[in-house]
């Protein structure tokens, strides 16, 4: 990414193979506005075609990840009356978020979420579409929508994919909030740090592991994993075998095999 896009709700910084995306609305605990949704969509669209970026790290400023949807946007939508034949503004607002979270979910890059403080509603959904999720000791996760008289319309399917139907039922239908340790036991996050220092250590280790893995093979693997459960197993395995043959004959496959035989690091592990 030669030039990072200008964002008002996000702070972007490239460090080696990773783009660090900091949600930067600390005065409202990083609540997700329509503008933030649009900016996240733009960023993920641009990194998709940037071979120098192999991971995207999502984090929130001011001690919170994201407290959910922005009430001001909802209030604005309530004041709009759709003309005949037009979509309901609440529909557009909600669906725009769903399109963005699906885009993050299907990104070919490794998405790493560092969750602290409030991880609610849309923020909870964003955490659930990460490939690697690290929680700090202050993190609190929840789907409070039903306590507000609304529904977790766009995030619920991704939470079910993350932790299963039975646990999602309990969290969503009771509007529960859980701490970092319970979130880890449920599979929402993978690791829990006991301090800010440990968060940075775990994050550094994750980014370094991304560097060790071939970028094209990583992207193909992620795409394959997303197909599980949506296609017949036999057809999926046929396709996977074709992908394997192509990978092993590719430049990456040749380099990886040669590096292993020569007992040296593969070319993609070099510092950017």
From TrEMBL:
Q: Which InterPro entries match?
A: ClpP/crotonase-like_dom_sf, Enoyl-CoA_hydra/iso, Enoyl-CoA_hydra_C, Enoyl-CoA_Hydratase/Isomerase
Q: Where is the signal peptide?
A: none
PANTHER family on file: ENOYL-COA HYDRATASE (PTHR42964), POLYKETIDE BIOSYNTHESIS ENOYL-COA HYDRATASE PKSH-RELATED (PTHR42964:SF1)
- Which family, according to UniProt? Belongs to the enoyl-CoA hydratase/isomerase family.
Name this polypeptide is given:
Enoyl-CoA hydratase-related protein
Source species: Marinobacter azerbaijanicus
Which taxonomic lineage is given here? Bacteria, Pseudomonadati, Pseudomonadota, Gammaproteobacteria, Pseudomonadales
């Amino acid at each position: 990414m030669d030039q990072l896009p200008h964002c008002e709700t996000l702070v972007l910084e490239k460090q080696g193979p990773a783009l660090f995306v900091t949600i930067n609305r600390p005065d409202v605990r990083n609540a997700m506005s329509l503008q933030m949704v649009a900016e996240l969509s733009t960023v993920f669209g641009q990194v998709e075609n940037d071979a120098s970026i192999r991971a995207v790290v999502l984090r929130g400023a001011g001690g919170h990840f994201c407290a959910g949807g922005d009430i001001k946007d909802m209030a604005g939508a309530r004041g709009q009356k759709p003309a005949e034949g037009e979509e309901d503004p609440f529909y557009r607002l909600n669906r725009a978020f769903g399109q963005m979270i699906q885009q993050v979910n299907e990104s070919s890059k490794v998405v790493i979420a560092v969750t602290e403080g409030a991880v609610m509603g849309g923020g909870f959904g964003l955490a659930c579409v990460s490939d690697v999720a690290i929680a700090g000791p202050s993190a609190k996760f929840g789907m409070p929508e039903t306590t507000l008289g609304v529904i977790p319309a766009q995030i619920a399917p991704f939470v079910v994919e993350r932790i299963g139907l039975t646990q999602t039922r309990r969290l969503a239908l009771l509007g529960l909030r859980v701490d970092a340790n319970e979130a880890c036991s449920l599979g929402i996050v993978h690791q829990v740090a006991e301090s800010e220092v440990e968060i940075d250590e775990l994050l550094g280790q994750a980014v370094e592991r991304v560097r060790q893995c071939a970028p094209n093979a990583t992207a193909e693997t992620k795409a394959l994993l997303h197909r599980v459960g949506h296609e017949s197993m036999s057809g999926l395995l046929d396709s996977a075998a074709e992908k394997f043959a192509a990978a092993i004959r590719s430049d990456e496959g040749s380099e990886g095999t040669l590096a292993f035989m020569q007992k040296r690091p593969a070319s993609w592990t070099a510092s950017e």
